[in-house]
Amino acid sequence: MSAPFQQYDQTSRKMGIAVAIAALIAILASNATGPAIWLHYLFKPLSTLLILAQVWLTASPVSSRYRSLLIVGLALSTCGDIFLMLPATVLASGFMCGLGSFLVAHLFFLRALTLDARLFGKPQAPVVYAAIGLINLLILWPTLPADLRIPVTVYLVCLTAMAAQAASRWLTLGTTSSSLAACGGALFVLSDTIIAYDRFSHPVALAAVWILGSYYAALWLLALSARQ
């Protein structure tokens, strides 16, 4: 292995450890009260920023444009993290701002995933994800607030389209990079599905662990997919 790649692998391992520690603190502090809540406010976006830095430092990326689109998507995800964790007393429309940030982030991820693979080139992937999305929407629809039904539906379409394209790209290319992105897309769907049921249907036990754990894993896998 050449010196630059050895250095990159060492940096990648260190970044992975840093992300794991930051994410663990964010998860453990998610239900904290008093001054300890600031640990959550600090380490939740910091975890995403560390993942962004991992993409920024990627040696020999799939393409410079792929890396750039992922960076923008991760930056928007960081904004979404901040909006969603703010209490209503600070930002009344925090949920909508967060939803919008992640929606646009998925559009950037989707664009990155279409740079080297035709959109939904393997139709079985969008069929499976569309079925999953439709089932979830039908279950959640009665409990969704009326003013959120359209925004949540639009977000769901963008999310499932991104994950479906990631899977379709993997089936087309069959590379390690594409498999990492496909797993990342699937975990993103899992994370947001748990959020939806926890918020609009019924509380999920250890919700923060499942939501943030799968979310950071999704972002980390997408970050790793930037490497050729």
Structure, described:
By secondary structure, this protein is mainly alpha-helical. The chain has one domain (3-224). Helices cover 76% and strands 0% of the residues. It has 8 helices and no strands. Helix 2 runs antiparallel to helix 3 (64-85) and helix 2 (37-56) runs parallel beside helix 8 (207-224). It is globular and about 45 Å long. It starts with a helix and ends with a helix. The mean pLDDT is 93.
- List the total number of helices: 8
How far apart, in Å, are the first and last alpha carbons?
15 Å
Mean pLDDT equals 93
| Residue share in β-strands | under 5%
Largest sheet: none
Shape label: globular
User: In sequence order, what are the helices and strands, one letter per element?
Assistant: HHHHHHHH
When the domains are counted, the total is 1
Judged by helices, strands and strand pairing, the structural class is: mainly alpha
Estimated helix fraction: over 70%
Poorly predicted regions are none
Radius of gyration: 17 Å
Give the number of DSSP strands.
0
